[in-house]
Design brief:
By secondary structure, this protein is α/β, with parallel strands linked by helices. The chain has one domain: Rossmann fold, CATH 3.40.50.300. It has 13 helices and 12 strands. Strands 6-7-8-3-9-10-12-11 form an 8-stranded mixed sheet, with helices on both faces. The longest helix is centred in the middle third of the chain and has 18 residues. The two termini are about 30 Å apart.
Length: about 350
């Protein structure tokens, strides 16, 4: 989307060792390279267990990769001194999936926000501190702010809790927010308002986002001009502008997801074609690195798919990691068929 590169991942891999005598490695992220620029929105899409949360935590500097490099404005974060790392960490904030667990239940809204405001804004008086807290609450849509100051988290709805979580992240003036499934535990009726708040933070404050989700529909609502990064078993398998990737899906995994997605409009739904997979089973652990991770389930896989890891190829304005991308049958999303 333009702008300076904030975070760059270079060939990042993360594995976790288990076993006492004979150690085995379970891979969560495998050889991921990615750039996040100012004002970017990267939507990291994939099913549970694909490694997207681990990748988000690596970007935020919460866990160290086993291999590869994480650069913050060109500097390796794991080679920074303590003082430099202390300055870097608040500039990348994380909003977690569970708004109920991410807030201290024994503190009021004011008690949650005031110490952070004190640290970063250095107000000269108690009155100024209260006004700063009220301004932040108003900005994230918790109005009137006076009503919320003395409320505890259990007094708030799921959507309000998540707004409070975003209020907390805004205080250090972050460059990037990693939003990990931020609406998945919120009532359907409240999801759009939280996604609308995220849009506002991106457009008005210029905050870049990594939006982690298993739901393409909410990702498209949040930002139809975003970059979509599709993850499967630790690898990014398709990458490009949201509209182009969804409008012209190339990787068999993305086609399978779109063919299985519900379509509320019956006129469009009748054009839907189900994609038959070789298997519906998803491996629980990633212990093998060679080959395409989707090959055991892919209806188009050949011998090379099991032996060699596909590299990214540029097609239709986006990148895809598939050996047979230029030989796959043409596949058009049902909503495009219906309108053609």
């Amino acid at each position: 989307m333009g702008g300076e590169v904030i975070v760059e991942l270079k060939n990042v891999t993360k594995y976790f060792e288990k076993g006492f005598i004979r150690k085995t490695r379970n891979y969560a992220v495998i050889d991921v390279s990615l750039e996040i620029r100012e004002r970017d929105i990267i939507t990291l899409i994939g099913e549970s267990g694909c490694g997207k949360t681990t990748l988000g935590r690596i970007v935020a500097g919460l866990i160290k990769p086993s291999k590869g490099t994480v650069l913050w404005f060109g500097k390796d974060i794991w080679k920074m001194g303590k003082k430099e790392f202390k300055k870097y960490r608040p500039l990348i904030q994380v909003v977690h999936q569970d708004p109920y667990a991410s807030l201290n239940p024994t503190r009021t809204v004011y008690q949650i926000l005031a110490p952070i405001v004190k640290k970063y804004y250095k107000p000269s008086s108690k009155k100024e501190l209260v006004e700063e807290v009220k301004d932040i609450l108003s900005y994230v849509g918790l109005t009137p702010p006076e009503y919320f100051l003395n409320k505890y988290p259990h007094h708030l709805s799921g959507g309000m809790k998540q707004r409070l979580a975003f209020a907390r992240t805004l205080i250090p003036k972050p460059k990037l927010i990693v939003a990990d499934e931020p609406v998945s535990m919120i009532d359907m009726s409240l999801r759009l308002s939280v996604l609308g708040l995220m849009k506002k933070l991106n457009e008005e404050l210029g905050i870049a986002f990594i939006y982690i989700s298993h739901d393409i529909a909410t990702a498209r609502y949040f930002a139809d001009k975003a970059i979509l990064a599709l993850m499967y078993l630790g690898r990014i398998v398709e990458l490009g502008p949201m509209d182009e990737v969804i409008g012209s899906p190339l990787h068999p995994y993305l086609r399978a997801i779109l063919s299985a997605s519900p379509i509320p409009d019956p006129k469009i739904a009748r054009y839907k074609r189900k994609m038959e997979l070789k298997s519906l089973d998803v491996p629980r652990e990633i212990v093998q690195l060679k080959g395409c991770p989707f090959s055991p389930r892919c209806p188009y896989s050949g011998d090379i798919c099991f032996e060699q890891t596909p590299q990214f190829k540029e097609y239709d304005g986006h990148k895809v990691a598939c050996h047979f991308v230029d030989k796959l049958p043409k596949w058009t999303p049902p909503w495009q068929v219906a309108t053609s």
